Amino acid sequence: MKTQGMPAAPPRGWTGWLMALLLAALVVASFVSLDLKWAEFASPGALASMAEFLGGFAPPELGTPFLLKTANGALETLAMSAVGTLLAVAAGLLLAIPGAGRLGLPLRAVVRVLLNVLRSIPELVWASILLIAAGLGPFAGTLALAAHTAGVLGRLFADALENAPLHAEHSLRTNGAPALAAFLYATLPQTLPQMLSYTLYRWENNIRAAAVLGVVGAGGLGQMLKYHLSLFQMPPAATVIIAMLALVALVDAASFATRRWLTN
Amino acid sequence: MLVLNNLSKTYTPGHPVLANLNWEFKAGEFVAIMGESGVGKSTLLNLIAGLDQPDATSTPPIMLDGAAMSALDDDAATRLRRQKMGFIFQAFHVLPHLTLHQNVALPLLLNGMSRHRASEMLDAVGLRGRADDYPHQLSGGQLQRVAIARALVHRPGLVLADEPTGNLDPETAHSILMLLRNEIKASGACTIMVTHSHAAAEMADRTLILTRSGLQVAKTVNPIAQEK
To answer: Has this prediction a pTM greater than 0.90?
Structure first.
């Protein structure tokens, strides 16, 4: 069928079909190699055990001393994520400038590799490494979040700087502005809303990650959860899980509202 | 004011973009430069601004107020542009995150001068009361008015304009060129405007044609220059 007034559709090549076939083969191979036991998972016995386990969580522990302890853990998790993100923003911005090729192509390549390394190592692995140097507690967790997030934000910031329209900076340079002033007045302000948006999104992620990091002894709600689960104290564990959900929801909402405000 | 002395520019050996240009631009005059696409008009502006280096010659190829431009290093050329030159671009190049007043005040800020004159310049280009507005609230013609105010606010001796009305409709272009002419005549700056538009060139004191063989005075007479 030819739509009136429209140019003819481009011819379809065989590469599209080949890619679809390869993708389908990959999906099938994944299912086969993982040895998934769906029948056992959905068996009446397994479902009953799961229901019994989940039933142990009710009712959550609501005693005032425990609620205060949970609030304190939530604050520690929040602080870890906030400080970790802040450190990552500072490091990410410093790395993004050479990473965007502002100081030459060789340095760009070196910094891009460093950023890849930083973000390829998950927070949990960073925390395990840093626990040795910084000891148990929130400090190691904070540094772990900062290291991984610096890699992510550094890459995103560098891309934002590279993709920013250059005419404003060029105009300032032409008008006799020094290179640093032209960057600070023209390119950085143009990319700042995007950078803030990335930062808020990563902060949301870091709240969740901070909660998980507690499991390896990095403090906060995660550490409380690990403690109570390992002792099969389900009601206090349920309270901690609810606190985690509430914290993530709160930060999600605040971050969403701020990002909307920034982009409108 | 500005002297071109055997000015040449070659990117590919054996194929100079500009070859042996000679001209003397006087203070206070408004000159339009026309020529075919690719003949080197924008290259000429870049060379005059010190944004690009001309071919080496025995005598300085560009002299501005008695100083050899080619002898300046990058920092010195940047300082010279900041103090003595103003620029007007086809695409306005107004900073979107700054107010109109902040945009116009930028050259003053860079030169360490009082920002008071930015308001005067906004008034002069017909944007009184719009100082706190942002560029996205303005039309193309109004943006070019801001660009003219910014180019002249620090009283430069030389204004370089690259197709300043290329993005405007004929009516707006005419009013912008009238404004540009009036403002540069009031400031006494020498202005070199590169343009494809005959209507724009007619607003200058004289028109030069850039060809492969050099700069030549156009045979047509600019009517506005006759009115003087």
So the answer is: no
